Amino acid sequence: MHESREHLQTLTEIRSLMERSSKFLSLSGLSGVSAGVIALIGAIVVSARLQTGLFTALRHDYSDANYTHMNHQEVRQFLVTVALAVLVLALLSGSYFTVRKARRQGQTVWNTSSQRLVWAMLVPLATGGVFCLALLQYNLIWLAFPVTLIFYGLALLNGSKYTLRDVESLAYCEIGLGLLSLFWPGYNLLTWAVGFGVLHIVYGLAMYFKYERTTE
């Protein structure tokens, strides 16, 4: 009986080591929280610039009286600028918290598993980014909001096999919300704020208390 327990413990340790070598487990829940807060700030900035509320139904062609102070080109340039700012700030904050967690665990951030994770997510994200630029080019601005959610969800789903499996749940939520937004165009800014803001904060807090809080 004692030997069986030792064998079971040994197998568990081997399995844990194999998982750590093949998956990037240093993602910090605080990265998700910070990204969510930044996304919400970005949504509020867009709402203020377009002079409408997050909970107000928008004309999906972005040409009603609320936007007479901006033409399509100005709206397009403004949205791209805000999106890039949110992306850069979210990446910087996420990198900070992830690097901090990895150092506490005595691990390196840039290794084989993290490279696989980045590559798995990069292809869907890059494809979605180019697709969104095409939508903006043809003034299909309302479609860009759900498309970003859908492709981001696909990127998370593709990368979930190289990191914490909890990421898969977030991926399905992002994809589902993006698909819903396709048929709810008047509230696409709201669904975008929920997807990139609220869901990230909820996910990040759940991951923090599940994996990090007990170790600090």
Automatic annotation (TrEMBL):
Presence of keyword Kinase: no
Membrane spanning residue stretches: 24-46, 78-97, 117-136, 142-160, 167-184, 190-209
Keywords: Membrane, Transmembrane, Transmembrane helix
Protein name: Membrane protein
Organism field: Spirosoma radiotolerans
Phylogenetic classification of the source organism: Bacteria, Pseudomonadati, Bacteroidota, Cytophagia, Cytophagales
